[in-house]
Write the structure tokens for this entry.
Amino acid sequence: MSWIDTHAHLDAAEFDGRRDSVRQRARQAGVRAVVIPAVSPGNFAAVRALAHSGGHAYALGVHPLYVAGLGEAALQLLRAAVRDALDDPRFVAIGEIGLDHFVAGADLEHQAWWCAQQLRLAREHALPVLLHVRRAQDPMAAALRRAGWAQSGCGGIAHAFNGSRQQADAFLALGLRLGFGGAMTFERARNIRRLAVALPDDAIVLETDAPDLAPAWLDAGPNEPAEVAGIGAELARLRAVSAAHIAACTSANARAALPRLQELLGGA
């Protein structure tokens, strides 16, 4: 069995001094690829370097919680970084971008401006997106509709999805897959677990969001890409299918959501 972790921040400080062991554990767990999203212009170079040194993939974008104080100049930096990366086979998406209506005091209007600009950039280059959608499912779906996302065919992934079935169906209709990770492994996460069981096979991708959103069994230390295998096994248990089936389906979905990842991995 092989797995794909569609969202892990391997540049995070929690991994300093131990990235080699983190990569080794991921390989031993059968993790075929990890997608490393950027969060601001300050880590564009880091995620690119880590993808190349570790044999993984990366995305470029500005996270909604990092847009404060950033304007047109930062957007031009992103545009230039994307142009420079277009010929890089390990560059697979625009991300992590989106909306966050959870953190108190956030400038939602500025978030929305950045989100719209980055969706436009993704459309210009026919690239999928890695979306942060915390407490903002309906506004994010509306932004995607305004951007003509269903018609664009760009697709992508709604990371760490935690909406209703109706909201899930809206994102699927827009061409997105939905990311499930450690939160799904907690028995108290009833909504996420119900959704994980009810969605069709082609809707779901797996992620860790390492070093955050650790699964229920991880008592100490940061989350790691290796944990995606256990997350997949829990999803298999919930859906009453084999882990091999989940590995095959979610890996195929990740490749479909991120076509450059398919090109990078080939038939392996």
About this structure: The mean pLDDT is 97. The chain is about 45% helix and 15% strand.
